[in-house]
Amino acid sequence: MPRNRVAIVLLAATMTALTAPALASASPTSLEWKLCKDVAKGWEPADDQRTECAMVTVPVDYAKPDGRKIDIAVSRQKATDPARRQGVVLLNPGGPGQSGIHQPRWITDSEAAGIGVDHDLIGFDPRGVDYSADVACPPLPGDDAEASASLPDKEKARFVFERDAKVNQRCVAADPEFVRNLTTENVARDMDRIREALGEEKIGFYGVSWGTALGAAYRTAFDSRVDRMLLDSVMSPTFDVGAMDDAMVAAGEVTARDFAGWIARYDAVYHFGDRQPVVLEALLRLRDEHGETVTNYLAGPRRDWANAAKALVALRDGGAPAAKPASGQGRGFGWDVDPNGFNTFQQTAILCNASEGPRDFETIWQRRIERVHAYPAIASPGFWNGRCAGWALPVQPWRFTPGTSPLQLVGHTYEPVTPIGWALAMRERIGGTLLTIEDDHHGSLSSLPCASKAVEFFSTGKTADGSCAGAPIPPPGS
């Protein structure tokens, strides 16, 4: 997917669905923990043998708790200081569609490793991802077919829309019950079954990107079962794939103009011009020649500006644009799956089951045109707006509500993936204390010295406001 966008998003459910079925309690189960490297195919062989894996059984449909069951893959690293152990922290890296079972190891290797001193770190693959249960909908020839280059832009877009609609309809038809229940709310309910299986009265939670919506969904339904919750790179409390595109492209427009100003300060290195307007005009000419390759550089994160500027110079001087990364989707589930860390269709299902925006081609096309005109530096039609082509399942919008459990929000001043305004809106909706990081790096808290605030929060419950420094912008040549 585009390098400056991370798959993200949200809750699906009505307030009625948050009642008795959501709160129904399952009997505690005894988990059969085994070393992940011994049971999970493709597990990192260099794992230090601390990470254990198990399966937790949950209902497909929580309105039918005695109906069809599926397994959710869970991992654990025990607290390194058992005498100080306070409980568990569940972890989610975002997506949706992204695997989370490796999160304990990644947190242990980060600046936030101190969380694992007095807490067990718990990762899991959400339903529909890697080792957890999934819908069987393998790709077919034609799923990635491209429109004829001779078609007008609108007809190219229509071709892609209709192509994706066929894929969506085929995968929904493969297992309608499972797909209908691919919602952020149900993943939150799965988390509560994991809590029960662990034998814990309360859980901590650390979620990033879409994981912040997952956290908000869990806290909405199970506030009394939250010990402490930290949400980094916060989603908007309302969801529409088109509105998400609007906000992300608007933030990318600001980034592109800031990037042009940065290049102007280093004209002796890059020779695009010594004034921001001159540089921006030169970059837009280059964008018109090379298309999305340049657009992705323009809206890329600040930490990549030196490399991006170097690549743009190469393009200007006759270099070839970078090749598109290949994409794929593994199939199967259970410990014998070939994991690839991501499931595109699971992401689509969770997004489209929740999105309240229009789904017809003509409306989506018009919004794309308006977006291109409103943000000329990026001139992007958006990435998500056509994702729900052909999606016929009923919309299940989320309804986040305030809670009383300790909540730490973390926003990023310049970020285009989850713009800072979303964190402010989420705070207004559900409460919590907002810490602002002065960077544009999506979910960067665990990689910064500021992660000490996360460690302190989970150990003491003390929230932090104010701001933290992000990583500096590397200078040219670095």
UniProtKB/TrEMBL annotation:
InterPro entries: AB_hydrolase_1, AB_hydrolase_fold, Pept_S33_TAP-like_C, Serine_prot/Carboxylest_S33. Keywords: Hydrolase, Signal. This is Alpha/beta hydrolase. Residues 385-463 form the Peptidase S33 tripeptidyl aminopeptidase-like C-terminal domain. Residues 1-26 form the signal peptide. It comes from Amycolatopsis azurea DSM 43854. One of its GO terms (molecular function) is hydrolase activity. The keyword Signal applies. Residues 88-250 form the AB hydrolase-1 domain. The keyword Signal applies. Belongs to the peptidase S33 family. It holds the Pfam family Abhydrolase_1.
